[in-house]
Amino acid sequence: MAVSGQRAWCATTRLTFSKSFGQMLAHEGYHPIGVQSGEKAIAHAAAEQPSAILLDLAMPGMNGWETLMALKQDARLGKFR
């Protein structure tokens, strides 16, 4: 179980997924935060330092795979390697 209050993001444009995963994460003790794009996930990840990020692999624009590669390349986000 997560330490109460740790942030976890769900990056998806699908509201149903965001709600479902948000409820699951909250049940495990995380504070879920929804973001609507890979670009937003990357822009805020260094400042927010979430404990976990769930990515929708089929997001329009920057998809989950592209977002993951960008997160891995950012030196400030070594824990996502």
Structure notes:
The protein is of the alpha/beta class. It has a domain at 1-54: Rossmann fold, CATH 3.40.50. It is 42% helix and 17% strand. The chain has helices spanning 15-27, 38-48, 64-73, and strands at residues 7-11, 31-35, 52-55. It has a three-stranded parallel sheet, with helices on both faces. The longest helix has 13 residues, at 15-27. It is flat. The two termini are 22 Å apart. The model has no long low-confidence stretch (mean pLDDT 84).
**Fourth-level CATH superfamily of the domain at 1-54:** Response regulator
CATH topology term of the domain at 1-54 = Rossmann fold
N-to-C SSE string, H for helix and E for strand: EHEHEH
What does the radius of gyration come to?
12 Å
Proper CATH architecture of the domain at 1-54: 3-Layer(aba) Sandwich
- Parts with pLDDT < 50 across at least 5 consecutive residues: none
User: What distance separates the N and C termini?
Assistant: 22 Å
What's the story with the biggest beta sheet? Answer: 3 strands, parallel
Give the helix/strand class: alpha/beta
Shape: flat
Give the spatial strand order of the biggest sheet. 2-1-3
Please write the CATH class name of the domain at 1-54: Alpha Beta
Beta-strand residue percentage:
15-25%
Query: How would you state the average pLDDT, rounded?
Result: 84
Helical coverage, percent range: 40-55%
**Helical run tally:** 3
Extended strand count: 3
